[in-house]
Amino acid sequence: MSRALTFLAAAVLALPLFSAAHAGEVAKPAIKIENPGTQCVAPADEMRRNHMEMLKHQRDRTLRLGERGAKVTLNGCIECHASKTNGAVTGGKDNFCEACHAYAAVKLDCFDCHQPKAGYKAAAATKPSGEHE
Amino acid sequence: MNAPDNKRRALLAAAGAGAVAIAPGIHLIQASLADEAGTKLASSKVRWGMLIDTTKCTSDCKECVSACNAENGIVEEVADPRQRSQWIRKIDLVEKRTGRQHSLPMMCQHCANPPCVDVCPTGASFKRADGIVLVDRHICIGCRYCMMACPYKARSFVHEPLTTQNPEMPRGIGCVEACTFCVQRIDRGQKPACQEACPQGAIVFGDLNDDNSDIAKRLKEVASTQVRAELKLDTGVRYQGI
């Protein structure tokens, strides 16, 4: 037990040294702006800091109060920032959302439910659900 | 089971509706929910409802189901048919004595006193001001209490990861979902997809609180039924001819 603690303490003490040695060596995410010249809903600095708060605030207003057409919408982000390659904001290290989230190691679970592709329309099912059997 | 004490609830709601001041200028509950930008919000003056004429509904027609699935992106292949999401389904009824058959679509009845909302441990299951009962998937933990509580078997659980959602109707693994009255269409001023798709015109949709709406006029004229009316849930979906 004490050996484990010693090891842990050593590891914690070494951590600042370790990260200092590597500072600046990790490549910054390459953010590709697909529609240059267009204006986002807020300046880039503010978006980088606060986009999650903006989206979280708006999602409750949209879902619970029925507010549509607000300044901040996730679909608005997707329409503008979807990659020209795969049409989505996720899917690879070059995709807009994923580039930073992979760099910052922040799990991106919006797209477990939301559609990451711009202008997507679901094709009809081969076996429709809701049929009585 | 005791029937919900609606009088007591109404009293509590009235007490809660008044602005509760916790400090000068700071209110816990705002008296009105007007949007700063003037955007239209769901209003409690409206109560959306649906009247389904089962005498017009035919057994072999599933247009409402297909339209619902297309509108809401319910197109995934699910290996186990028991796990398929059903926001709306067709039911055939046979009166045993007379052999009279009829067919009807069954979906979330958008109760005024929804049991799914009562039992939800996280507040994910909720009723919007205009009476539409929805699931907030952001906070749904997938416990499925609401599915147990619903007398209409109206809710489904998503078991598998999805990739084919429509942008306006997010859906995902681990969450419960059900008919939303096509809330995305209602907020645009349109009517639900099933109503538009019905070739028999068996579905009337509108505002139950508006005396001049088609549905309010029809409900004044014809005998309509709430399924499981004895539960006093005050359903938004009514049936004619059952």
Summarize this structure briefly:
By secondary structure, chain A is an all-alpha fold. Helices cover 45% and strands 0% of the residues of chain A. Chain B contains seven helices and eleven strands.
Give a written overview of the molecule:
The complex is a heterodimer of chains A (133) and B (242). Chain A is an all-alpha fold and 133 residues long. Chain A is 45% helix and 0% strand. Chain A is globular. About 5% of the residues of chain A have low confidence. Chain B is of the alpha+beta class and 242 residues long. In chain B, the strands form 5 sheets. In chain B, strands 10-3-11 form a 3-stranded mixed sheet. Chain B is globular, with a radius of gyration of 19 Å.
Overall spatial form of chain B: globular
> How many DSSP H or I helices of chain A?
4
**Order of SSEs of chain B:** HEEEHEEHEEHEEHHEHE
Biggest sheet character of chain B: 3 strands, mixed
Segments of chain B where pLDDT lies below 50 for 5+ residues?
A: none
The major beta sheet of chain A can be summarized as:
none
What would the average pLDDT of chain B be, to the nearest integer?
Answer: 89
Run of helices and strands of chain A? HHHH
- Number of helical segments of chain B? 7
